[in-house]
Design goal:
The complex is a heterodimer of chains A (about 170) and B (about 190). By secondary structure, chain A is of the alpha/beta class. Chain A contains 3 helices and 7 strands. Helices cover about 20% and strands about 25% of the residues of chain A. Chain A starts with a helix and ends in a 42-residue tail after the last strand. The relative contact order of chain B is 0.15. Classes of the chains: A alpha/beta (about 170), B alpha/beta (about 190). The interface of A and B includes residues 136, 144, 151, 152 and 158 of A. Bound molecules: iron/sulfur cluster.
Chain lengths: ~170, ~190
């Protein structure tokens, strides 16, 4: 675990103390920010604090989760490849406003990661250059990693024509 | 009057001869989508050596294959591809469903995994296991060879099977307690 106090100092001088919340858990260094601030914090982390690599963008659905206040928790993991600092940035979203600015302008690598989150959770990344489904077929309806999506689906796995011997 | 057959002449039916040729030169199409594919590769490699049974020529073009081995789970996005490849394979052709996933969906009872490819394409042999050992796959190939020899016909009548699709072929044979020797002539509604 690499020390982050310098980064936190910089964040404090730029955003004040109220707008973010830092905690550590199992050697994970986490920063929770408001969704509106998410892009500017990430931009600041990249341009000023040297977090030059985006490791992952993903999402968690906290529906029915014990003690959870918000529905969707976005997760950005960023890395400073020079100092080895690693930071998990989180922002929470609630229905119906599932929009957050895309970070593709900062890290090109976010392109497919955000498409996957869109595909599975229906989070809309505003400003994304090409927000289409990436894993599921284009005609798929619904967002299957949401907790209210039935595990066995809505029949899409059975929805094909049947080929018999005669046709083959 | 008795006809004398010279020593070096054998008499057989055309059906038998055609089936005999077909069964000993199966050309598999490796539709390996997951972990079962590794066992499929092992089956083809030197240790298990499926060449001993005349099925070593794996081709990656469906036009050159007559045995589709579906090894691994098939998801709903893949199924149209599977069906297309199946349709592209020339007759006569057979299909082995290898492993729990291809046969039933296995442990992946989720929205995206097809619960058994036999819902959507015809399957001749099912290989149980997760993954099946190469010996099991070889056994399936041997059983398939038996089946081809038993049921095959020169004109491929055994494939035109509205009547034979239901109930499933294997069950039908079990119920009869024997293997049907002659097949119903199609079109003639035997
Ligand atoms: S049956 Fe087992 S080994 Fe084969 S594809 Fe499924 S999970 Fe993998």
């Amino acid at each position: 675990m690499v020390d982050l106090s310098g980064v936190l100092e910089q964040l404090k001088s730029r955003f004040g103390e109220r707008s973010w919340d830092y905690s550590e858990f199992h050697q994970n260094q986490r920063l929770v920010v408001a969704a509106e601030l998410c892009f500017s914090v990430l931009e600041f982390l990249k341009k000023t604090c040297g977090f030059d690599m985006l490791i992952d963008v993903t999402c968690v659905d906290y529906l029915h989760y014990r003690g959870a206040k918000d529905r969707f928790g976005l997760v950005y993991i960023v890395l400073n490849t020079v100092t080895g600092q690693r930071l998990i940035v989180r922002a929470f979203l609630n229905e119906p406003d599932l929009k957050i600015p895309s970070v593709v302008p900062l890290w090109e690598g976010a392109n497919w990661l955000e498409r996957e989150v869109f595909d599975m959770y229906g989070i809309e990344f505003t400003g994304h250059p090409d927000l289409r489904r990436i894993l599921l077929p284009d005609e798929f309806v619904g967002f299957p990693l949401r907790k209210d999506y039935p595990l066995r689906g809505r029949g899409e796995r059975h929805n094909f024509e049947r080929i018999t011997r005669g046709e083959g | 009057m008795e006809i004398e057959v010279p020593d070096n002449v054998a008499l057989t039916s055309l059906d038998y001869l055609a089936s005999w040729c077909r069964k000993n030169s199966l050309w598999p199409m490796p539709f390996a989508t997951a972990c079962c594919g590794i066992e499929l590769m092992a089956t083809g490699a030197s240790r298990h050596d499926v060449a001993r049974f005349g099925a070593e020529v794996f081709r990656f073009s469906p036009r050159q294959c007559d045995l589709m081995i579906v090894a691994g789970r098939v998801v709903m996005k893949m199924l149209p591809v599977l069906q297309r490849i199946w349709l592209q394979m020339p007759e006569p052709k057979w299909c082995i469903s290898m492993g729990a996933c291809a046969s039933t969906g296995g442990i992946f009872d989720t929205y995206s995994v097809v619960q058994g490819i036999d819902r959507f394409i015809p399957v001749d042999m099912y290989v149980p296991g997760c993954p099946p050992r190469p010996e099991q796959l070889i056994q399936a190939i041997i059983d398939l060879q038996d089946k081809i020899q038993r049921e095959g016909s020169f004109l491929g009548n055994e494939f035109i099977t509205d009547a034979r699709q239901q109930p499933k072929r294997a069950l039908q044979e079990l119920e009869l307690g024997q293997v049907p020797r002659s097949l119903p002539i199609i079109g003639g509604k035997a």
